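Sat 14:20. Reprocessing the chain from the morning session after the first attempt stalled halfway. Input below, unchanged.
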Amino acid sequence: MRLGAAWDTRDAFRREYHLAAKFMSHPDFVAGVSARLLHKPATKPQWQPSTLDAVSAEDVESFFKIEEGEEGLELLTQGRDYDRYPFERDLGLPREEHVEEEVVKRGKGKGKGKGARRNEVLEAMVEGKEGQIGVREKVEEVLERRCEVDEEGNV
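Finished this time. Tokens:
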């Protein structure tokens, strides 16, 4: 956990891929999937080693170790380091700064003391995300927490 705190998104994707590949190539993964999903009726998997006490610290550490020269996950943005998910605008829920940008954009040109209408901001953001689940709730929560609404519904 302490190591992962220093990773950017690229490092996290690469490490997660590496870890998943190690797990899936381990005989216990095949034994577990076969026992539970392939054999009918389900059977008891034959683990290697057979008990948790027999698993060494070295066994566990081997899943996390990346060997020198080992090929990793090829990302679409090779050479780019980023600290946020690169497709957050397209795929993720809006961040607070996105809501703020929409409030500012919708409030421009309305005259002194007139801001963006809360419902316009909300509907524009929901429509912009094509009704994605969770967008309405997220934008409502941000507007509630970060904005004051006047008697006319302006934020």
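The chain has seven helices and no strands.
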